[in-house]
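@here heads up, posting the sequence + SMILES for the zinc ion run so it's all in one place. Ping me if the SMILES looks off, I pulled it from an old spreadsheet.
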Amino acid sequence: MSLNYDNSMIICRECSGQGTDVDIECPNCFGTGYDPEEDKPFAQCHTCYGEGEVSLDICHHCSGTGQLFVEDD
Ligand SMILES: [Zn+2]
Ligand SMILES: [Zn+2]
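bot reply: prediction finished. Complex structure tokens:
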């Protein structure tokens, strides 16, 4: 006998399972606070305004559920 319950859901790592009202690493500067698209170095990121993270009402990674289906690679 082996445990065979559905284990295909995992906690969303983007929001740590919170789903809503989450702070995530800025997708534009990857948490550095500097805009990688700017020609000049150390230009302030216009997405997070140099904070390095942004607040979301709903996590776009898990659509606010806090969980994700495991995908086989
Ligand atoms: Zn940023
Ligand atoms: Zn999430």
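MO: The chain has no helices and four strands.
MO: One more: The two ends are 27 Å apart (CA to CA).
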